[in-house]
Amino acid sequence: MTQSNAERARTFRRLHAGPDVLVLANAWDAASARLIENLGAKAIATTSAGVAWVHGYPDGSALPIERLVDTVTAIARVISVPLTADIEDGYSDDPDEAAANVARVVRAGAVGINIEDGTREPELLGTKIERAKRAAAELGVDLFVNARTDVYLRQLATGEAALRESVTRGRAYRAAGCDSLFVPGVIDPRDIRTLVEAVELPLNVLAWPGLPALGALQGLGVRRLSAGASIALAGWARVRAAATAFLSEGHVPAPSEPAMTSRDLNGMFRA
């Protein structure tokens, strides 16, 4: 028996309560999501960059919402664990239109979203959060909203000012109804602990050079770790290397790790 969206939403919420850090190896299509689930993932998150690239668009809210909905629908069909979708800025500066887009991905099977402030005023994201939660509730889903602030990622401030601004935004997004705070680019253990304690929301960090190891993150109170686009990038690097060799030499080099076969992939989808 498959879980309903409402049941998956409750499961996803529990995964943020600990004791383990929720590790999300972000997927970009149905095949990558099914493979990651097969490897033991407790939930699937999409990478906005990876989804955009696979449809031929750059990252940065250029992807047509229809393509995102198609991707969420395809992933939801092949997995049994909760699914959260990266919707960038909601693909609109209009909070009502952003909420309508959220409703579309919820109908497609998502029970959580990432939504970001980018370089916009934080008040805009607060309004989007409120309306997104309302739109999902009308569909019977207690949507888990992971509010992303880009203060560190885009260097909107540096040093102590970056920490203060991230805390201020995190508290504002909590007041608007978000369920966790995503601060990509933060790596300093002191800053991480301060964010956990000052914002009082589950903290999501991004795999990043210099980030403490998983065990240390757990000790700092982090509740969620995302791969972001890194796995998709690793896959594209492998495709580039294999295609380059084939075009120049007429063969694909054997991988250093055990290769996947057509039988492996076909069996994964028949399971």
Give me some keywords for this one.
single chain, 271 residues, alpha/beta, TIM Barrel
- Give the % helix: 40-55%
CATH class: Alpha Beta
Radius of gyration: 19 Å
Mean pLDDT: 96
How many domains?
A: 1
Number-wise, the strands total 8
User: What's the CATH topology label?
Assistant: TIM Barrel
Spell the H/E element sequence. HEHEHHEHEHEHEHEHEHH
Strand order of the largest sheet: 1-8-7-6-5-4-3-2
**Total number of helices:** 11
Helix and strand arrangement:
Blueprint: H1 5-15, E1 22-24, H2 30-38, E2 44-45, H3 48-54, H4 65-78, E3 83-86, H5 95-108, E4 112-116, H6 122-138, E5 144-148, H7 159-176, E6 180-182, H8 189-199, E7 203-206, H9 214-220, E8 224-226, H10 230-249, H11 262-270
Parallel strand pairs: 1-8, 2-3, 3-4, 4-5, 5-6, 6-7, 7-8
Helix pairs in contact: 2-4, 4-5, 5-6, 6-7, 7-8
Describe this structure in words.
This protein has 11 helices and 8 strands. The relative contact order is 0.12. Strands 1-8-7-6-5-4-3-2 form an 8-stranded parallel beta sheet, with helices on both faces. It has a single domain (9-229), classed as Phosphoenolpyruvate-binding domains (TIM Barrel). Strand 7, helix 9 and strand 8 form a beta-alpha-beta unit. It starts with a helix and ends with a helix. With 271 residues, it is of the alpha/beta class.
